Amino acid sequence: MTDSRAGIRRRRAATAGAAALLVVLGGMATSGCAASPRADEPPQRAKLTFQDELTTSYLRHFTESELEEMPGDYSEPFYVNLAASRVSPGTGQVSTRNIKVTVDTTATKSVTFDTRKREQVCKGVRGLVTCTPKNLKSGDSANVWLFDMRVRRNAEDGPAGPMKITVTSDNTPTIHRTIQLVVGAPELAVREGEGLADVAPGSEVKARPAFGNRGKSGLDDDLSVVVDVKGQATLRRQFSNCRYDKADAPTKAVCTFPRPLPAGAAYETDQSFTATVAETGRQGAITYTVYPAPNTPSSAQLPDSAPRGTGAPLGFRPVDGGLFTTFGRESAHSAVQFLTTRTRDLQVNGFALRGQVGQTNDISVKDLDGYYEGGVFLTLPEGVSLAWHPTGEGHEELYCGYVDEKNRKVLCPAPLIDPPTLRFRIDKRVEGARGTVSVQPDPEHPDPDLTNNTAPITVEYVD
User: Fold this and answer.
1) Is residue 372 part of a domain?
2) Burial status of residue 4 (CB atoms within 10 A of its CB: 0-12, 13-18, 19 or more)
3) Computed from CA positions of residues 88, 93, 97, 102, in that sequence, does the dihedral angle turn out positive or negative?
4) 172 with 197, same domain?
5) Are residues 396 and 324 in the same domain?
6) Are residues 66 and 97 in the same domain?
7) Per-residue pLDDT, 34
8) Higher per-residue confidence, 35 vs 374
9) What value does the CA radius of gyration of the chain take, rounded to a whole number of Å?
10) Does residue 448 lie in a domain region?
11) Alpha carbons 427 and 381: distance in angstroms, whole number
C-alpha cells in the first residue's frame, strides 16, 4: 500500500532491524551473566543491557585507487548502544554509577583503532580500549561512539578476529558480548514493495522475497529471511525448511539458508509465501527482512523447537537485481501491502504488555488494527503506567501520552511515517488486570461494524 496521507512532515532513514512492524523493544537479554553478589552487598537496583544485537561487524574495504581518490576520512565509527533499567520494584529513576566500557581488540588483525573520542574519555593501551561514558538513568539509553575503525591497506577480505566488550558500573551487574570483525562489507538490496487494492476478504495474497548484494564484497555468512504478516491475515505453513510461530494460522516464518551471497548476485525465492486474508479483514501486509544470519535480532528469531512447514523446502533462483533498492550491510526490508473492500471497517487487535515488575518496556503501536491512520486510544491495565519519554517538538520518535493520567487514559497519535511508541512501566502485579485499546469511527465514512472497534489489553508478568 502506498501511504499518501497528508501531514507527513519527516522521513527517517531506515536502519538495521527497523523493519519489524510490531516489536517489543524493552526487556532484551544481555549477552553475558552477572557475577553473584556477596552476601553483605545490597541488592542491585539497576542494570545495563546492550540494545543493538549485532554479532558481526562488516568493514568497508577500499582498493588503493579508491583510497587515492577519497578526499577525507574513510574510517568506520564503532558504537555501543546501552540502556539502563531498574531491577528492584519501586518508583522514580535510578542512576547507574561510574560506567566503564572495556574493549579487548588484541585478537583482531588488519584493523586499526582510533580512540581519540573526548566525549567518552577513551584510552587505548596494548590493544585494550577503556572508555568512561556518562551515567544513565533507568529508562534512558545512549548510543555511545567509542572509537573509529579502519581497514589497513592491502588487507584481504575475510574474518579479522573478535572484539570482546565488557561493561561495568558500581551498581549494576557486569555484561559481556563479543563482536566478530569481517573485512569486506556487503550492500544488501531488495525488490521494491508493492501495494494491492480491492482485495477480497477471505482471499489469498502472495509475496515472493527477492534480494541481492550490490556491494563490492561477498557475504559468506548464512542468510536469514524473516517473514511477518500484519493486519487481518495469517500465513500458510508451507515450507519444511522454515520455522513458524504457530502450528495453526501462523503470522511469522523464519527461514535460514546455508549459502553465501556473492557481490553482484541477486535471487528470489522459488515459491511464494501465501497469506490468507480474514473474512472480515480490511488491510495488512506480508513483510520480509533479509539478514546475515549472525545479525538476526533475537526479537526476529524463533526457537529450534518451533513448528516446521509441511510442504517442500523453499529454495532460490537467480534474478536480475539491477533495480533493487539498496539498504545497508545488516538487513534489507520490503513488503506487499494490501487493502480490502472493507477498509472503512476500523478494527483493533488486543495485545499483551509483557515484562517484569519494575521494568520499563517499549511496544510499537503500528498494526494493532492494520495500518489505521488515526489516533489509537488506550486504557492501561491497573498496575501499569506510562514511563518517562521525550515530549515536545524536535524528537525523532512519536510517543503515546496521557490524556487522563488519573484514569490511565492514553492517546497514541496518528503515525506519520513510523508508528507511535508506547513506553510503559509495570509498577506492581495485579492478577487479572486488563485494559482496552480502541479507535473512534470517522464521521465522514460510516463504520459498518462497531463491535470490533475495542479490544482487550492484558499483562504478562515475567518472573
Assistant:
1) yes
2) exposed
3) positive
4) no
5) no
6) yes
7) 40
8) 374
9) 24
10) yes
11) 11
What residues contact residue 455 under an 8 Å CB cut-off, 6+ apart? 348, 349, 350, 351, 436, 437, 438
Per-residue pLDDT of 416-448, as tens digits, reads: 667 788 999 999 999 999 999 998 887 777 787
Measuring CA to CA, how many Å separate 31 from each of 166, 175, 303, 450? 10, 6, 17, 46
For CA atoms 153, 158, 160, 166, give the dihedral sign.
positive
**Would the pLDDT of 357 be above 70?**
yes
Strand order in the sheet with 141-151: 46-50, 76-86, 141-151, 111-114
Q: What's the rounded Cα separation, in Å, for the pair 36 and 44?
A: 10
Q: Are residues 74 and 207 in the same domain?
A: no
Nearest to 131 by CA among 107, 94, 105: 105
Terminal C-alpha separation, the chain: 41
The backbone region for 110, taken as left when phi is positive above 0, alpha when psi lies in -120 to 50, beta otherwise, is: left
Q: Say if residue 251 is in the same domain as residue 271.
A: yes
Q: At which of 132, 159, 183 does a domain end?
A: 183
In a domain, 11, yes or no: no
CATH label of the domain that carries residue 276:
2.60.40.10
159: cell is 574474518
Statement: residue 332 has pLDDT above 80: yes
Dihedral through CA 419, CA 451, CA 245, CA 317, nearest 10? -70
Report the pLDDT averaged over residues 77-86: 90
pTM summary value: 0.66
Residue 239 and residue 183 in contact, taking contact as beta carbons nearer than 8 Å: no
Q: Which residue reads 590493544 in cell numbers?
A: 127
Residues 394 and 426 grouped into a single domain? yes
Instruction: List the one residue out of 1, 16, 56 whose CA is nearest residue 286.
Output: 1
pLDDT at 29 over 50: no
Q: Where is the domain boundary, 183, 202, 231?
A: 183
Give the burial string for 309-342 (b: 16+ CB within 10 Å, else e): beeeebebeebebeebbebbbbbbbbbbbbbbeb
Amino acid at 164: K
**What is the tens place of the pLDDT at every residue in 230-272?**
988 999 999 999 999 999 999 999 999 887 899 999 999 999 9
Q: Which domain holds residue 369?
A: 351-461
pLDDT exceeds cutoff 50 at 12: no
**Residue 88 and residue 65: Cα distance in Å, rounded?**
57
Asked whether the CA dihedral 319, 325, 331, 333 is positive or negative, the reply is negative
Q: Which of 442, 274, 447 is nearest to 374 (CA)?
A: 442
Asked whether residue 346 is domain-assigned, the answer is: no
Percent of the chain with pLDDT over 70: 84
* Number of structural domains in the chain: 3
Reading the block at residue 456, the C-alpha cell is 482487550
Name the pLDDT band for 370 (thresholds 50, 70, 90): very low
